[in-house]
Amino acid sequence: MTTMYDPLTPDDTADDDLSVWPGSTARLPDGDLAVGGVPLTRIAERFGTPAYLIDEADVRTRCRTYLHAFPDADVHYAAKAFLCRAMAHWVAEEGLGLDVCSAGELELAVTTGFPAERIVLHGNAKSPHDLEAALRLGVGRIVIDSASEIARLAAGVPPGSRQKVMVRVVPGIAAGGHAKIRTGTDDQKFGLSITDGSAQHAIARIIGQPGLELTGLHCHLGSQITADKPFLAAVRRLVGLMARVKDQHGVTLPELDLGGGHGIAYRPGDEALDITTLARKVRAALIESCAAAGLTVPRLLIEPGRAIAGPAGVALYRVLAVKRTGGRTFVAVDGGMSDNPRPALYGVRYAPRLIGRHSTAPSAPVTVVGRHCEAGDVLACGSELPGDVRPGDILGVPVAGAYHLSMASGYNLVGRPPVVAVADGHARLLVRRESLDDFRSRDVGL
User: Fold this and answer.
1) 156, 159, 164, 169 alpha-carbon torsion, rounded to 10°
2) Mean pLDDT, to the nearest integer, of 225-232?
3) Residue 378 bridge partners (DSSP)
4) Closest by alpha carbon to 282, among 257, 305, 309, 304?
5) How far apart (Å, rounded) are the C-alpha atoms in residues 149 and 405?
6) E strand spans, 173-211
7) What secondary structure letter does DSSP report for 436?
8) Active-site residue (options: 84, 290, 373, 381)
9) pLDDT band at residue 441, thresholds of 50, 70 and 90?
10) In sequence order, which residues have a C-beta less than 8 Å from that of residue 187 and are 6 or more positions away?
11) Are 98 and 118 in contact (CB under 8 A)?
12) Angstrom distance (rounded) from CA 123 to CA 130
């Protein structure tokens, strides 16, 4: 498998250690790296550490890659990977839709100017506020995830209008990079099962609601999927269900949403999903399955998040301490699980790099750890760093654009880092650093 595109210049391809960095990454003579034409040490000096940077051009290129690979589909960026006003603006300008999972994500996007009709609302447990906001703002689709949502949603639709909905179907397919991010099987919290008839029952109820318009079926198999076979199996199973809907209810569903979960490489040599190959095979499977079932080919929707935001992001940390004990070397930095909980949750591995100085010391395996009061606060295990790494050094961690800050917490009241956009040699602040004043202003009791 290959990544969506090779972000390196010809001179860099012989050395694979930058293959997972943003597309604009360039080596500088002093040992620094530049992303978007901006040296990373300059980012650290100007904005402090920890800090996150997003390569705007990389985000836009990946959006265009998806549109080129899926020219006949609606591509929706999955906001849960990472969302801020600038990200919503870039995605809208590139012609993508958006999928959101809460009233918070929805309102941020709409107040930024994102067209509500190009937004899909997800969620296994939507609150009354989520549904009210979706109806008030006029989202394009609401994905029904449980039977209880049907009556609640139908009751909220204004008289004389209809809300377009989809049903999230569990196709019974196991896929994903970790058990905690596999969502296509019957033994987890998402969706309605084909196996036990829950999906079919929900479809029948929706068709009977005059305020709801069922436009299609939705599924999401999991995250970090690097093979195309699970998606092809999902196409066949969902088309089979669409055929049964037509036979039983006389309704031809015009849309099929395959969700996202497209795997990316976090370290050089990691496997990644080939988007161009996936698009070609999915399209062929969809045409073949519909022909066999006697169905009109539905409009395809996909929802990439990580595959757009992840490789465009870099986290910058400053080394606070180096400790050699028990035969291991621990490199402690000024961030940790409060800005990136993924290693603690899923055991994921990264490839941090020394930034800003040349080192002639031989590399050695180290464990990069955070500053939080948990033994599991580990950012990278078995990482190769120069043997003379020391306090004050800056480390850069690539592929940090997705599910870092979107999952960040207030643990130890450290404060969430800022987000900085880089493009054409300029850096600008998108999201400021969380401060002590923020903590004090929210704490209103005594």
Assistant:
1) 50
2) 92
3) 369
4) 257
5) 30
6) 192-193
7) H
8) 373
9) very high
10) none
11) yes
12) 9
Which residues on neighbouring strands pair with residue 35, listed in sequence order? Answer: 38
Q: Which contiguous run of DSSP H or E holds residue 284?
A: helix 275-293
Cα 146 to chain centroid distance, Å, stands at 23
Comparing C-alpha atoms, which of 12, 56, 14 is closest to residue 425? 56
Q: What is the pLDDT of residues 107-166, one digit of tens each?
A: 999 999 999 999 999 998 899 999 999 999 999 999 999 999 999 999 999 998 999 999
Helix axes 56-69, 85-93, angle to 10 degrees: 40
Tell me how far apart the alpha carbons of residues 184 and 218 are, in angstroms, rounded to a whole number. 11
For residue 174, name the pLDDT band (cuts at 50, 70, 90): low
The three-state secondary structure class of 289 is helix
pTM: 0.92
- Concerning whether 373 is annotated as a catalytic residue, the answer is yes
DSSP-derived 3-state class of residue 385: strand
Q: What are the backbone dihedrals phi and psi of residue 27, each rounded to the nearest 5 degrees, phi first?
A: -80, 140
Residue 296 has what DSSP assignment?
A: P
pLDDT band at 187 (very low <50, low <70, confident <90, very high): low
Percent of the chain with pLDDT over 90: 85
Question: CA 138: distance to chain centroid?
Answer: 24
- Burial of residue 426, with CB atoms counted within 10 A of its CB: 0-12 exposed, 13-18 middle, 19 or more buried: exposed
Tell me what pLDDT residue 318 has: 98
Mean pLDDT in residue range 91-99: 98
Residue 227's Cβ-count burial label (10 Å; 0-12, 13-18, 19+) is middle
